[in-house]
Please model this.
Amino acid sequence: MENKLLIYGANGYTGELVTRYAAERGLKPILAGRNEAKVAELAAKYGFEHRAFSLDDTAKLDAALQEVDMVLHCAGPFSITSMPMVKACLRNKKHYTDITGEISVFETCAAMDKKAVEAGVMVMPGVGFDVVPSDCLAVHLKDRLPTATHLSLAFYGMGRISHGTQATMTMNVGKGGAIRKDGKITSVPAAWKTQEIDFGATKKMGVTIPWGDVSTAYHSTGIPNIEVFTVVPPPSLKMMKMSRYLGWLLATAPVQKYLHSKIPAGGPSDAEREKGKTLMWGKATDADGNSVESRQQGPEGYTLTAIAALNIAEKILAGNFTPGYQTPAKAYGADLVLEIDGVDRQDI
Model:
């Protein structure tokens, strides 16, 4: 079977980047998506096969999956698109990966662990910037302090975000924040907590957000209390706080339609990605007051996503996988992210 990898959503911003990197590695994925013309054009550019179908076309979806061993799902918003693909993968006994950062997707996939084990396949959402680098940092901190009961993670992405990422963020505006408390995911107000974060190269004010690690870091480490921070511009922080009171309005269809219409197309250029980078920080503490801290630096987020996703895809295709629901660092260890050129980690 020459084409063992299906990239669905290949014509999106991140999907196109993944496709380009796949070609550079000598991989020959089948490209797929809803838009026949765009997928066909992209496939012709690289000499790949392509398929066009929507996720509610079960016959075409199943037929495409029968041609491959695994899926790299790049078509968001994943809270809408992931389950049809996950269920199809389980039905056809194919491995599932995606590049989501949405807590609901991680938790839904985790609940399907038994079915994945029975199917003999691995289900691993979050094989991109969220959550590979932060998941690896979380496991590294847990390894340094096995008694840890609390985990704080923070990231600073220095670069522009894509249309798809902004669309997902817009869809979730007004839904508040989330942390993990005593092992359970707990809702908190938007911008619930702020804290100055020392990333080493710079110090920035971080704010809590409902990042995917609120879900995944618990599955990876067992640490029951988890908070995730990011750095946002002051106007964005102000808007986050305002959403506590206006969330109901921001979630209405007319406002959502307006906000989505204002999102610029595309994403960062190659030059912008080359200049961008990501900074991370993490701290684990235990009940006795012991603590450990580490920092991590890496390439720009979309670059890291494409490389990490394909690194994991190659492992799976080589037979290196664990059936069931898995997180990146749980399956492949804390040093998985260090396989990416430009990633560096320091213990403080």
